[in-house]
Amino acid sequence: MRIELALKLLGPHAGMDAQDSLQTLTTMLALLRELEATETARPGVQGTRWTFNELRLGSVTCVLEPLRIAEHSTYDVVERVARNAVGGLYEAESTARIPTGWTLKAAGLGRRVAKSLGASPDVGMILEVRGDGEALRTAEITQRAALHLDEATRTRHRTFGSRRGRLSGLQEGGRQRRLRGVLRTEVGGEVIPVYFGDDLDPELRRAWRRDRVEITGEITENAQGQSMWMRARDIELLATSPQLSDDDLRGGFWPDMTSGQDAVEYVEALRGDN
Q1: Residues of the chain by 3-state class (helix, strand, coil), percent to 5
Q2: pLDDT at position 188, please?
Q3: Phi, psi of 256 (to 5 degrees)
Q4: CA–CA gap between residue 12 and residue 58 (Å, rounded)
Q5: Would you kindly state where each structural domain of the chain is located, as residue ranges?
Q6: Closest Cα to residue 168, out of 129, 205, 138, 208?
Q7: pTM, whole model, 2 decimals?
Q8: Which range is least confidently modeled, 3-12, 165-174, 208-217, 261-270?
Q9: How far is it, in rounded angstroms, from Cα 89 to Cα 102?
Q10: What CA–CA distance (Å, rounded) separates 274 from 269?
């Protein structure tokens, strides 16, 4: 499928301020890179490169499409990234929360994309993901999205607790050069940056890319209770949920309990069917 991302800046401000228009496009590309890095768990690596398929001035209108897919990425990933970018900004338009699947950094980039927009749709922006020329998802974005994302990225609470999920995307980050990973939580679909001290190196090596871990530590939250980042104090490896094969299901969950009967035979025996 051919994936395109169409962007149109509306209103007189779009044609009058070249710097703002170019900054919006540049930040949109940075947002796509951040979402792709989160999707592929490869932060700090060169992402997919995009090119203009169409560019018109006046009210700035452009259509972007992938020029070269990154080596660690795929066409399916690029499609999900484009959908997530449009869907996240649409979500930010209606609620003051970090959009589902977005990191704190992505939310900051989204705020910058929307901050030069006007207060109503006629001076806002239209985003559209297209597949083979057909619209897959469309969103109208205004200054409201920037205000919501600004509120969502403000620190409000610090608590001590734990989150469960999958840990990936390890790199050095922050002014103190601490190791940082990304935890994608089982509940709520949060994507949380997690910082680790040197004392957790052995546990971190064992937990790396495990399907399920539980991280306990200091959690910084916004006013909506979303986790913005964590400082880890402990890492626990969790058992991976068992996956039942078709053969397991045909034999019943516990063959000893069903006397070797398959699921249908066992239910019929319980009901007394002949």
Answers
A1: 35, 30, 30
A2: 81
A3: -65, -35
A4: 8
A5: 3-152, 157-244
A6: 208
A7: 0.79
A8: 261-270
A9: 10
A10: 8
Name residue, tokens 């994302």.
149
Sheet of strand 125-131, all strands in order from the earlier edge strand to the far edge: 49-56, 61-68, 3-9, 125-131, 134-141
pLDDT tens per residue, range 37-93: 999 888 777 899 999 999 887 668 999 999 999 999 999 999 999 999 999 999 999
Given a contact cutoff of 8 angstroms between Cβ atoms, the answer to whether 104 and 228 are in contact is: yes
For the domain bounded by 157-244, which CATH number is listed?
2.40.50.140
State the Cα–Cα distance between residues 206 and 167, nearest whole angstrom.
Answer: 11
Q: Which amino acid is at 158?
A: R
Give Cβ neighbours of residue 75 (< 8 Å, ≥ 6 apart): 1, 3, 66, 69
Residues 6+ apart with CB under 8 A from 170: 179, 180, 181, 204, 208
Helices (H), the chain: 12-16, 18-40, 75-94, 104-114, 143-152, 201-207, 246-250, 263-271
